[in-house]
Write a structure and sequence with these properties.
Layout lengths: L5 E7 L5 E8 L12 E8 L25 E8 L2 H4 L8 H14 L20 E9 L2 E5 L4 E4 L4 E5 L3 E4 L6 E9 L5
Antiparallel strand pairs: 1-2, 3-4, 4-10, 5-8, 5-10, 6-7, 6-9
InterPro entries: Cupin_2, OryJ/VirC-like, RmlC-like_jellyroll, RmlC_Cupin_sf
Protein name: Quercetin dioxygenase-like cupin family protein
Organism: Nonomuraea jabiensis
Length: about 190
């Protein structure tokens, strides 16, 4: 049975006591540029660092990647590769421009990290990412050729390396990610 993402957020009531301020399902964001993939943008803190308390900053979920000191909490459901093979692609430059514009509108900044013309999905982000496999299985591939299979319960600390995610199984895989915007020393 697939997990249905739900976000529960605590806050403060008028008397300063903790209260539930949100408890609701989260709808996925999809885009034709990422066929079959579902993104659940749950929460994030502004760049520069998080605050808590009655005057905490409002959540930030976009742009997709946090800047230095910001955070993002998201779930990503990866479809099986077999579900993507043979899907129609853009038939003209105009179609491709429309597809690109759609993903930029819905998930600003996401595609900026991917390498143009590289179908492998390799990308590099300036984030420290904590990932947890919740459903299915997913392969993490690094540019060195190293690969590791993730199954439910596997935790990954992704430290800004060039990488790609692959679902080689026959069912969707769900990953939870906490991304922390970082600086890359030169």
């Amino acid at each position: 049975m697939a997990i249905d993402p739900r976000l529960i957020v605590t806050g403060f009531g008028p008397d300063g006591a903790g209260v539930i301020v949100r408890d609701a399902p989260v709808a996925p964001i999809t885009a034709r540029a990422l066929p079959g993939q579902e993104m659940y943008l749950l929460w994030g803190s502004p760049d520069g660092g998080a605050t808590v308390g009655p005057k905490a900053a409002d959540p930030v979920t976009l742009p997709f990647f946090a800047g230095a000191g910001g955070t993002r909490l998201l779930l990503v459901r990866f479809p099986p590769a077999s579900a993507i093979i043979g899907l129609p692609s853009a038939s003209s430059p105009e179609d491709q421009a429309e597809i690109d514009a759609e993903v930029e509108e819905r998930l600003p900044g996401l595609m900026d990290v991917f390498e143009p013309g590289d179908p492998s999905g390799m990308h590099t982000t300036d984030t420290l990412d904590y990932g947890i496999c919740l459903e299915g299985e997913l392969w993490l591939e690094l540019d060195s050729g190293d690969e590791v299979r993730l199954t439910p319960g596997a935790c990954v600390v992704q430290q800004g390396t060039r990488h790609a995610w692959h679902n080689r199984a026959g069912t969707p895989a769900l990953m939870a990610f906490v991304g922390i915007g970082a600086e890359r020393p030169s």
